[in-house]
Design goal:
about 220 residues, alpha/beta, TIM Barrel, 9 helices, binds pyridoxal-5'-phosphate
């Protein structure tokens, strides 16, 4: 176990150093960029060394999988912060509100309404991000770019959600920079403080464009 904790600490240190270098090089705000460690497909045995090494913010993309892994880990680490970064069906909203601390994938009115209802029922008002379909890809989740600002406004005023930021996954196989820049622009227009963008392959570019949260999986945990 000690070896695995050392390895986790080394992986975390390496990513955080690269994050800090990118932040300094581009001199962009924010002062601090949050590392969301994406642990999907990895079991509690692989996650535990990262918790022991001090990491507290994690991302999962499936409600069912999170339910199998995280309640037991949370018993031991009360201060951890779990982000839902995958698509959410309305019939899983109740479980999602119980399991997660931040919902990054609000992308339609029906879901926003259901989340609001479940949050008020559970008396848990979670910070949320609106996911934007930044590349206009048919198969991808997210609100279309031209509806994003109005949707953020509706989430706040109609549904009463606490929208803190925007989140996106740019199209594969293209430079991500222009998509991150577009998300940053939409974030300004929607008056949100946070931007969740950048993964293992492009988190430094995302930081250059103003990311406040990067979601890094394989660069920390290895290949899935
Ligand atoms: C899997 C996943 C990530 C992490 O991807 P890596 O390339 O492994 O860093 C980030 N964001 C979302 C939404 C994901 O599903």
């Amino acid at each position: 176990m000690a070896d695995r904790v050392d390895a986790a600490a080394t992986a975390l240190g390496y990513i955080k150093t690269r994050m800090e270098k990118a932040r300094r090089r581009f001199g962009a705000p924010p002062e601090h960029v949050e590392l969301v460690a994406v642990s999907k497909t990895f079991g509690a045995d692989a996650i535990a060394p990262f918790l022991k090494a001090g990491q507290r913010v994690f991302g999962e993309n499936r409600v069912q999988e999170a339910k199998e892994k995280w309640p037991a880990l949370r018993e031991r680490y009360r201060d951890l912060e779990l982000h839902l970064i995958g698509p959410l069906q309305t019939n899983k909203a109740r479980e999602a509100v119980a399991l997660f601390d931040v919902i990054e994938t609000v992308d339609r009115d029906k879901l926003a309404a259901m989340l609001a209802e479940e949050m008020s029922r559970a008396r848990r008002r979670l910070p949320c991000f609106v996911q934007v379909n930044i590349g206009g890809e048919e198969q991808k989740a997210g609100i279309p770019t031209n509806e994003a600002v109005a949707f953020v406004e509706r989430c706040r005023t109609v549904h009463g959600l606490d929208i803190v930021g925007l989140m996106c996954i740019p199209p594969d196989g293209q430079p991500a920079g222009p998509y991150f820049a577009l998300l940053a622009q939409l974030g300004k227009e929607a008056s949100v403080a946070s931007l969740s963008m950048g993964m293992s392959g492009d988190f430094e570019t995302a930081i250059a464009m103003g990311a406040t949260h990067v979601r890094v999986g394989s660069a920390l945990f290895g290949k899935r």
